[in-house]
Design goal:
Order of helices and strands: HEHHEEHEHEEEEHHHH
Helix content: 40-55%
Number of domains: 2
Number of strands: 8
Shape: elongated
Number of helices: 9
Radius of gyration: 21 Å
Length: 209
């Protein structure tokens, strides 16, 4: 009986250590999905919350007691298909100084999940064949890896969806892009062709360059 109890305690400690290592790697956060994917029973998360080692931030999303909530990571953890886009991507690429109050994300048009009910996001739906066009991995302002559209894809997106973005943000972003030494016009043209907005993009660039 004592041997069984010791083995159980050792198992608990081992799993707690595994979870804390993931938390440390994630700068203070962890999701239920990550726990399960690492072969750990999610009951250990519940136990750690009861012990005060972790706090439940929202469904499936946990952090250390002194956490600073990373809304970018929180949104990303709700769907592997979420890509930050439009005004939010402009902010992440320093093409806008307006801190997001709501977060622009792009999802496949066949998506049906919890993010549709999330009041903190504005969703742009696209066909799956362009969902990953220009997607890159960036570090959120809080140090977490998130998926964002690169600058050229973002420029194409705001031109295609001009009616969905603030006019001032739109204008300043295009001017800043045109002035940037890091712009990639061949990539911009490539994306524009794929997204079937080559003429629109060309017209804007002719005026700005």
């Amino acid at each position: 009986m004592i041997k069984f109890q010791l083995e159980r305690e050792q198992c608990e400690i081992m799993n707690y250590d595994k979870i804390l290592k993931i938390v440390e790697k994630n700068n203070g956060y962890i999701t239920t999905k990550e726990v399960v994917n690492n072969g750990i029973d999610k009951k250990f998360l519940t136990n750690m919350v009861k012990k005060g080692t972790l706090v439940r931030i929202s469904k499936g999303y946990y952090g250390l007691p002194n956490y600073i909530e990373d809304e970018y990571y929180k949104i990303s953890s709700k769907s592997k298909n979420a890509r930050f886009s439009m005004a939010t991507a402009l902010y992440l690429h320093n093409l806008s100084n307006r801190t997001p109050l709501l977060y622009n994300i792009t999802l496949p048009n066949d998506y049906s999940g919890v993010l549709q009910k999330d009041k903190n996001v504005i969703i742009n739906f696209v066909n799956r064949n362009i969902l990953d066009l220009g997607v890159i991995e960036m570090i959120s302002p809080f140090g977490m890896k998130i998926k964002v559209y690169d600058i050229e894809r973002t420029i194409c997106d705001i031109i295609k969806n001009k009616n969905k973005i603030d006019g001032e943000i739109f204008g300043e972003a295009l001017k800043d892009y045109a002035r940037s030494k890091n712009k990639n016009l061949s990539k911009l043209t490539k994306y524009a062709k794929i997204m079937k907005i080559e003429k629109k993009v060309s017209e804007y660039m002719e005026v700005l360059l």
